[in-house]
Each structure stands twice: as structure tokens, then as C-alpha cells.
TrEMBL record:
Topology versus the membrane: Multi-pass membrane protein
The name this protein goes by in its record: Sugar ABC transporter permease
Species of the source: Lysinibacillus piscis
InterPro entries found in the cross-reference section: MetI-like, MetI-like_sf
Segments passing through the bilayer: 32-57, 100-119, 131-151, 163-183, 204-226, 280-300
Family: Belongs to the binding-protein-dependent transport system permease family.
Domain of life of the organism encoding this protein: Bacteria
Amino acid sequence: MEAETKREQKKRLQKSELYRHRLMNNSKMDRALLFVNKFILIAIVLIVTIPLLYVLLGSFLQPSILATKGISFNAEHWTLDGYSRIFNDGSIMRGFLNSMLYAGSFTLVSVGLTILAGYALSVDGLVGKKFFMVFFLFTMFFNGGLVPTYLLVKNLGMINTPWAIILPGAIGVWNIILARTYFKGLPNELKEAAKIDGASDFVIFIKIILPLSKPIIFVLALYAFIGQWNSYFQAMIYLEDRSLYPLQLVLREILIQNEVQPGMIADQLARAEMQRIAEMIKYSSIVISSLPLLIMYPFFQKYFEKGVMVGSLK
């Protein structure tokens, strides 16, 4: 008996040593993998951050210094002339306000309709739910195209109006699926308990579902706002009045077509200096157009990660 006990103890010791050896080997591999991952992430961050820092610093530097010496941290070489020219120019500030109006209104309409559609499709007792899902999925892969869409918008009388930017494309099938998946992950016991207490479907949606849906609502709002803020193609197609142009369309004229408003640069300047000032104005315009997203994202980040993961995996 004692011999068998010693043999068992010896086997257990060997197994524990083997397990410890494997654990040490795995930890080395894990450390190597973590090192490679950190190196790759640092490289990606530098690749993304360096151009952004260059644009940010270039917007504050004197055009001649930036053209001859490059980035300088000498305070004597810094200027706010680019931003003053932008704020004194009516087209860029008007475009900024238009973009805020379009993006904010589009976000409200898109999130509202998406939440309603996603919740309706998540209810088990909805009649024709499969038909509606197939219908939505069909539009996700097939659409009428640019010309029929333009004719539809024109026949609805929305050409050259803000509604042509806000209403078309307000509903995204992928966002509906994301919201539907999130709602299906919520516990049914809450809705059943509310029904027993006599609550209607509308009361359940307003007082129970919406308070629990902050993560997915913030995710949908961030998607909608960023997508509309960066959009310029719809405005280029549907808007004719320059006073209705969003900021991105104004920046397109500056960045791609190199059209800086004549009033922003004095006529007596040399052509080379005009080009340098135009570059500074471009950098300043890019910084201003990025500010809303940079300010918005930190407040949405904690909801963004949770909403995306829960809505996509449940």
C-alpha cells in the first residue's frame, strides 16, 4: 500500500512538473506574442498620428516657415492667421453650421427609425416578421441606382433643400439588424413582468427597453453622425444653392479643386506666397472639420465598445 501511494505521489509530482513546464513555455510564447502585438500597434499609431500632428502643427505655423524649414516649435514662427481667415470667410463657417444641422437632424431621424424598426423585428409575436426581414435584406444588396433615386428625390420636391440630405439614406439595414440583435438579447422576464402589471407595449418600450438600450443608441448615433458629417456626394448631387453647401463640400473645393475664396488672400501677394497661405488654410480647415468628432468620441467610447460587442454577438 505504501509503495502504491509513493508511486501515485511520484506520478502526481511528474504531472505537476510537466504542467509547470508547459505553463512556462506558454508564458514565453505569450510574452513574445504580446511584444509583437505591441510593436505592431505602436507602428500603426505612429502611422496614423504623425500626419495628424503635421496637419495640426502646420495650421499654426507661418506659411513661409512651413515651406522652407518644416515643422518648428519656436513660438515666434506660430500664427493664428489661417484660423482668422477661415472665421472671417462666410462660406466655411456657413458650411460648418450646415453640416452641424444636417448631421444632427440625420442622426435624430436615423436613430429614431432604426430603434423602432429593430425593436419591432425583435418581438416574437410580430405578424410577417420574416417577410419584413427578407424585404430589408433584399434592399441591402439591391437598390434602384443613382438616377432613379435622383428622380424620386426630385419628384418629392426635395431638390435643393436640406431634406434631400437628411431623409435619403436615413435607414440602414445593417443598423436595423444590429439593433434587432441587441433587443433580442434583453431578458424577456422584464417585459413579461411589465405586462402582468398592465403595461402596454408602448409603455414597455419607453420605460423599460429604451433605458436599457443606451449602448446601442449611442453606437447608432455615432455611426449616423460620422457618416453624415463626412458625406459630400449627396450634397453635390442634390444641392444647387451654395449657401446650403455642407462643410465637406466646401472643403472639397479647397482641397481637391484648390479653390480658395479670393477674399481670403490679398491680391497684392506674390503667387508663391498665395499658395503657401492656401496650404495653411487647408490645414486649418481640416482641423476645424475634425473637431466635432474629436470632442464627441470620448463621451461615446464607453457605450461604443459595449454596444458593438453586445449587438453583434448576442
